[in-house]
Write a structure and sequence with these properties.
single chain, about 725 residues, six-stranded parallel beta sheet, 29 helices, about 10% strand
């Protein structure tokens, strides 16, 4: 194996703490896998094991596969000498050793993020029912925003509860502290925390925050278990360290304390989760400055030198010229170098300059410009992959609807995408129909859903024909009469008719299911629906939601639950979808364009990338401008309630907190949006297109192109002129 010059020093590692900051496309997985295999082959890990910690199960599986292949090639057979797992799997293993040490029953269960979100929503609803609505309204600047505030507050409470748990503040302790402070936000959160905590304990659950906190406590308090794990893992690797939080870092540092061999790999410039999680790039920065060894991987062959040039320009321009001096530290001065000629592959090369920028007069204008460019690109380069990156799930949905109308095949990577929410809506329609099985309309809607929403003239004829009959005429005769068969043959093909009767049989079997508890009925219906693995997991989340909702509201009817699933399913099960579908590894396909948010694009790459929505609102550069993190309907002191709550909790803990948390939160949003743009740019291999819009509307509503778009568009013009 021949390594690049920026990899040689990493492969020479013999022990101690080592930080590996790496640029996008530098080959982090490659170097971790090879260094781990080298340690194993040389038996350096003996008498213990080597551990690799990731944050996604898909990443863990990828490492297992790569290391396994490297070892097999060298005839290494003892695969039990190393372990690859997520940070939460590691914490669970530790906690299972001695749950009684912190008062846990040995049969405790883990509440994943999807189910946690459901518990939080239901705890919030119960608090409202107990009289919390007046408290919630007290934060409003205008009551016009009450519905949005009501829809979003459980997320604010969830983020603050997570912080409290990571700092080991129990619900009871926090409630007393909040009562003394008399801060309305902390009081509201303390009430929801209490309800949520009681629900966890009564159902035998702990959540992921508990898992990290409790496992760290076990290691700190029980010397016997601590020594066992320190002896077990002689080398510890951590991937994607820029997304680590304080407690995760403390846990791994404690495990590696005896042997001192801790390798942490990440890219600070790709830290894009801090504004909605407890992660913070400062923890990796501190490790880089304190580690015994620090080696930067700054070469990458993913992108063309033109795209690398733009990424490096963004780093330089932000650090030297950003209009908000306090945000000039958003990107670390870590510049990407192209890979020199050699066995490790070269950067894509072209005679033409493949970077472009366009300004439109509306978001719709951006969409249709992107569609035109996409069609031209696919016509010229049918074998190349393409992606449309947009700021939010709302933008994903609007883009996807146009792609569908234009007949363009696409993959929609969104937690609320039609594909991900289909099992929720299907089950909602099943319950809606079971509530009124005699309804022609509900029967037809369910049938259409089961048949995949077929469209076209043939399908229209079928739906019109079905609408003329009562449901029981289909459900209890199994096939057409001779006269009807002749009529149907003239309407639809044999294949469509066969599919039609197959779904009729499915509906009939669902009707025949015993009328037990609704959540049990749901799971029995799933067995008849031929759901795939991920769809079944979503159905289990639906059953979990129904069971817990009915525990508080036992009189809920089929129709009421159906209404929740079909109309609010996207909000209720968004987090569940993220947990379930992110277990899948996505591979871009040249036959289908990818449409996703900038966040979802991390870790992926395409030949052509279009970056849309580059407006001041989506990518702010000024503390004066409004941005997505702010709640327009709240009083000025609470514009960013999560930031305000974090600062108030820090003061409770005696920690340093910002004098103006709303301003500091704005600064952090600006920093993170810069890193998000950097991620978007570095997803492109050969072609990169920037789109923005400038729109002046009524009543002062307007959209301006972002500062970054202006600077990058000018950069493109300058570079293009040099090549002429």
């Amino acid at each position: 194996m021949i390594f690049r010059e920026d990899q040689i020093s990493i492969m020479a590692y013999s022990g101690g703490t080592m930080a590996v900051p790496a640029v996008p496309g530098a080959g982090k997985t490659f170097i971790i896998a090879n260094l781990a295999a080298d340690i194993l082959l040389k038996q350096k890990h003996k008498p213990g094991k080597l551990l690799i910690v990731t944050y996604m199960l898909s990443a863990a599986n990828n490492f297992k596969s790569r290391i396994g292949k490297l070892l097999e090639e060298k005839g290494f057979s003892n695969m039990s000498d190393y372990e690859v797992m997520t940070i939460h799997s590691l914490a669970l293993r530790i906690l299972k050793e001695c749950p009684d040490a912190i008062g846990l029953h040995e049969d405790f269960d883990i509440l994943d993020e999807g189910k946690r979100n459901i518990f939080l929503q239901q705890g919030f609803a119960y608090w409202l029912y107990q009289g919390g609505e007046d408290s919630l309204k007290s934060f409003l600047h205008t009551e016009k925003g009450f519905k949005q505030w009501k829809d979003g507050f459980h997320g604010v409470a969830g983020a603050l509860i997570s912080k409290l748990k990571l700092h080991d503040l129990s619900a009871g302790t926090f409630k007393k502290m909040a009562a003394e402070q008399r801060e309305p936000l902390l009081t509201a959160v303390s009430n929801i925390y209490g309800i949520y905590d009681k629900a966890l304990r009564s159902n035998g659950y702990i959540d992921y925050d508990d898992l990290l906190n409790f496992s760290y406590k076990v290691l700190k308090q029980d010397a016997r278990i601590r020594e066992r794990y320190q002896n077990r893992y002689t080398y510890i690797f951590e991937d994607e360290c820029q997304d680590s939080n304080l407690l995760q870092g403390k846990l791994l540092s404690l495990l590696s304390e005896k042997n001192g061999n801790l390798i942490r790999v990440g890219d600070i410039n790709q830290s894009i989760t801090g504004t909605f999680s407890a992660s913070n790039p400062v923890f990796f920065k501190e490790f880089c400055s304190q580690a015994q060894h620090c080696h930067t991987m700054d070469m990458a062959n993913r992108s063309s030198t033109d795209i690398i040039g733009m990424a490096n320009f963004l780093v330089q321009d932000v650090s030297q010229s950003h209009p908000e001096p306090s945000c000039r530290d958003a990107l670390t001065a870590q510049y990407i170098r192209p890979v020199p000629a050699g066995p490790w592959g070269q950067n894509p090369k072209f005679n033409e300059y493949h970077l472009y920028s366009y300004i439109e007069n509306s978001w719709d204008g951006e969409i249709y410009r992107a569609i035109r460019l996409l069609k031209g690109f696919k016509k010229k380069y049918p074998d190349k992959t393409a992606a449309l990156l947009v700021p939010s799930n709302y933008h994903v949905e609007s883009m996807a609807s146009v792609l569908k109308k234009e007949g363009i095949e696409y993959d929609e990577l969104s937690n609320t995408s039609e594909k991900r929410m289909r099992p929720v809506r299907t089950l909602g329609m099943v319950l809606d129909y079971l509530a009124q099985p005699e309804s022609k309309d509900k029967f037809l809607q369910l049938l259409q859903q089961f048949m995949g929403g077929k469209e076209g003239k043939e399908a229209e004829k079928l739906w019109a024909w079905v609408g003329k009959h009562n449901p029981e005429q289909f459900l209890y005769q199994q096939r057409e009469t001779e006269q009807e068969e002749k009529a149907v043959n003239q309407l639809i093909s044999a294949n469509l008719r066969q599919e039609f009767w197959k779904q009729i049989e499915r509906i009939r079997r669902i009707l025949d299911l015993p009328q037990t508890r609704i959540e049990d009925l749901i799971l029995k219906a799933v067995d008849l629906l031929s759901f795939e693995k991920e769809e079944k997991a979503m159905a289990e989340a639906v059953a979990f939601f129904i069971r817990n909702r009915r525990a508080r509201e036992p009189r809920l009817t089929y129709s009421e639950i159906a209404d929740l699933l079909t109309h609010q399913g996207g909000k209720i099960f968004k987090t569940a979808a993220e947990v379930i579908y992110d277990l899948q590894e996505y591979e871009p396909n040249a036959d289908r364009v990818t449409v996703c948010t900038y966040h979802k694009a991390k870790g992926l790459e395409w030949d052509c990338v279009m970056l849309l929505g580059l407006t001041q609102y989506n990518f702010p550069s000024s503390l004066v401008h409004k941005n997505r993190s702010e709640y327009w309907y709240l009083k000025e002191d609470y514009k960013n309630p999560t930031a305000v709550g974090n600062a108030q909790i820090d003061r409770l803990l005696g920690r340093e907190s910002p004098q103006n948390p709303v301003i500091e939160a704005k600064e952090e949003v600006i920093r993170e949006k810069i890193r998000l743009l950097y991620v978007g740019i570095t997803r492109a291999k050969e072609f990169l297109i920037l789109l923005a819009h400038q729109q002046y509307g009524e009543k002062g509503k307007s959209e301006e192109v972002s500062y970054y778009f202006q600077r990058l568009a000018e950069y493109i013009r300058l570079q293009r002129s040099k090549q002429l």
